[in-house]
Amino acid sequence: KVYKDEKTVVIKDKYPKARYHWLILPWDPISSLKSVTRDHLELLEHMHEVGQKMIEQCPARESLEFRLGYHAIPSMSQLHLHVISQDFDSPALKTKKHWNSFTTDFFLNSEDVIEMVRSKGKVKVKDHVSELLKLPLRCHRCKQQLSTIPQLKEHLRKHW
Asked: Which domains does the chain have, with CATH numbers?
């Protein structure tokens, strides 16, 4: 546990996909984005603010970019917001599925989720979103396509 307040708890991801990778979980049992309604808007905004605080207190914040977001189809059944640095420098990043889950539209930006709930009252996940996990490996910075995860990791070093 890294941080907690009356609404959320922050933990380090057990299998971080970057140098900095936290999960922000609400104390309330909310299974996934599918269960989210307008009633959760304040909570989603709070989770986003907590994510921003995590970035602000990160010693490497000046040299790293971060994204805050949700997986369209999560791997665990409790709502959680990812706060992840964009270096993707981690031994736990092993598969195309891992990569694409953070670098395609499978990863829903926190602000977009908040806006969707504000305007539509729910989160609409596109049909066939899981197909995005099968896309070829592509650098999130320069869009160069790479064949393997080791090649991708080698390529990413150019962008640090």
From this structure: 3-159 (3.30.428.10)
Q: What are phi and psi of 26, to 5 degrees?
A: -75, 150
pLDDT in tens, 61-106: 899 999 999 999 998 899 999 999 999 999 999 999 999 999 999 9
User: Among residues 80, 82, 128, 155, which one is catalytic?
Assistant: 80
Active site residue 80: yes
Nearest alpha carbon to residue 88 among 98, 76, 75, 74:
98
Does this model's pTM top 0.85? My answer is yes
The residue type of 135 is L
3-state helix, strand, coil in the chain (%, to 5): 35, 20, 45
